[in-house]
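User: Hi! I'm working on a homework problem where we have to compare a predicted structure to a textbook description. Could you give me the structure for the chain below?
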Amino acid sequence: MTFSDMTATWLIISFKTITLVLGSLITYLAYKAYRRTGNTSLGLLSLGFGIITLGTLLAGIADQLLRADFLIGLVIESALLAAGFLVITYSLYRSAG
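Assistant: Happy to help. Predicted structure tokens:
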């Protein structure tokens, strides 16, 4: 059995879709908790997960809809992943201090 490009493409799309759904749910729940409590750290946590989820979405759009080079999608996703983790780290730092 060989691992074809078509199989890889469908696996990537499937995992990216799951990531998008779960990331959106985490973002929504964190935002809902922020609205309920008014805790700024929860608002920042929501923003961080939103940025990471946006990275997944934009990378998928670049790859599948715009037919951009795979590396461009990877750079977009990696940059937003790093930015999202930076915001999440700051939110946790704020809540721990």
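For your comparison, note the following. The chain has a mean pLDDT of 93. The radius of gyration is 16 Å. Good luck with the assignment!
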